[in-house]
Amino acid sequence: DTEVTQTPKHLVMGMTNKKSLKCEQHMGHRAMYWYKQKAKKPPELMFVYSYEKLSINESVPSRFSPECPNSSLLNLHLHALQPEDSALYLCASSLRGLAGAGVHNEQFFGPGTRLTVL
Amino acid sequence: KNEVEQSPQNLTAQEGEFITINCSYSVGISALHWLQQHPGGGIVSLFMLSSGKKKHGRLIATINIQEKHSSLHITASHPRDSAVYICAVKLRDKLIFGTGTRLQVFP
């Protein structure tokens, strides 16, 4: 299995809803990433988990809550989002955790979840 | 000024043409990615390189670390190559992305 999967593909939610995005990989990768991408813009890093511990939080609002239950799974819990949070949410993974990762720590991206907040 | 600059921003080509997309960066990096994103879709990693040249099918990527410059070449372009091509540099723990080059190949 050489891919990163994300569910759901599309999600529409109201501002009072609670929902979760899921990301899974079975490549034995030890770092997992959440990115947010607005239309016609490059991805912006949100969170990085390294060896199942949160290593980087790019000052993301608390209405986004990441969780890494095990080395294969990464969730992003959403609560009280705003319409401006509508975007494509991309998950990625890389073989090594961040510490001592070295040069050849290529990131593999999932297909993304397109989120619309009404 | 962005740390990663790509040119051109938009590119149209006829099927069969040779295409070059350029990426320049201003920071010291450990590696550089070339990524492909189809409209509305996820991102596919094409290459990660830290020196020299890599080839995969019709795609060739080169990097010159001293000049802080990389190029992505597509030989015998095809309409299915139409996508956004993104250069991203690896700086410590993070990827810094360029703004992308939107390529359209017409039959």
What does this protein look like?
The complex is a heterodimer of chains A (118) and B (107). Chain A starts with a strand and ends with a strand. Helices cover 0% and strands 55% of the residues of chain A. With 118 residues, chain A is mainly beta. Chain B has 107 residues and is an all-beta fold. Chain B is 0% helix and 62% strand. Chain B contains no helices and eleven strands. Chain B has strands spanning 4-7, 10-14, 19-25, 31-37, 43-49, 52-56, 59-64, 69-74, 83-91, 94-97, 101-106. In chain B, the strands form two sheets. In chain B, strands 2, 4, 5, 9, 10 and 11 form a six-stranded mixed β-sheet that branches. Chain B has a five-stranded antiparallel β-sheet with strand order 1-3-8-7-6, with no helix packed on it. In chain B, strand 9 (83-91) and strand 10 (94-97) form a beta hairpin. The radius of gyration of chain B is 13 Å and the shape is globular. The termini of chain B are far apart. The model of chain B has no long low-confidence stretch (mean pLDDT 92). At the A-B interface, strand 9 and strand 10 of A face strand 4, strand 5, strand 9 and strand 10 of B.
Determine the most extensive contact between two protein chains.
Answer: A-B, 26 and 22 residues
Share of residues in helices of chain B: under 10%
Q: Percent of residues of chain A in helical segments?
A: under 10%
Would you list the SSEs of chain B in sequence order as H and E?
Answer: EEEEEEEEEEE
Strand content of chain A: over 45%
The fraction of residues in strands of chain B falls at over 45%
Largest beta-sheet details of chain A: 7 strands, mixed
Our count of helices of chain A gives: 0
The chain-level mean pLDDT of chain A equals: 91
For the CA atoms, what is the radius of gyration of chain B? 13 Å
Based on Cα principal axes, name the global outline of chain B. globular
Cα-to-Cα separation, first versus last residue of chain B: 36 Å
Overall average pLDDT of chain B: 92
Structural class of chain A: mainly beta
Residue stretches of chain B low in confidence (pLDDT < 50, at least 5 long) are none
How many β-strands of chain A, per DSSP? Answer: 11
Biggest β-sheet description of chain B? 6 strands, mixed
Radius of gyration of chain A: 14 Å
| pLDDT < 50 stretches of chain A | none
Please, how many helices of chain B?
Answer: 0
**In total, how many beta strands of chain B?**
11
